[in-house]
Amino acid sequence: MTARPMKQYQVVIAKLQGRSQSDEETLTDLLNERERTGWHFYSQTALSPSRLMLVFVRET
Q1: In what helix (H) or strand (E) does residue 6 lie, and over which residues does it extend?
Q2: 33 occurs within a structural domain
Q3: Does residue 48 lie in a domain region?
Q4: CA 18, CA 60: separation in Å to the nearest integer?
Q5: Which residues on neighbouring strands pair with residue 42, listed in sequence order?
Q6: Contact (Cβ atoms closer than 8 angstroms) between residue 39 and residue 57
Q7: What tens digit of pLDDT does each residue of 15-50 get?
């Protein structure tokens, strides 16, 4: 029987400033940092106008 890889999930709450360029830089840095450490973007949910929940996944 072959073991199937398990998935790990990581949730990050990003606080947005309401300034397009600043928010874009924040999200880009966050996505790049996670990608470098083996996490891949999975989904996002707006919690409020200034808060965004991002979910990342990786196989172990």
Answers
A1: none
A2: yes
A3: yes
A4: 36
A5: none
A6: yes
A7: 999 999 999 999 999 999 999 999 999 999 999 999
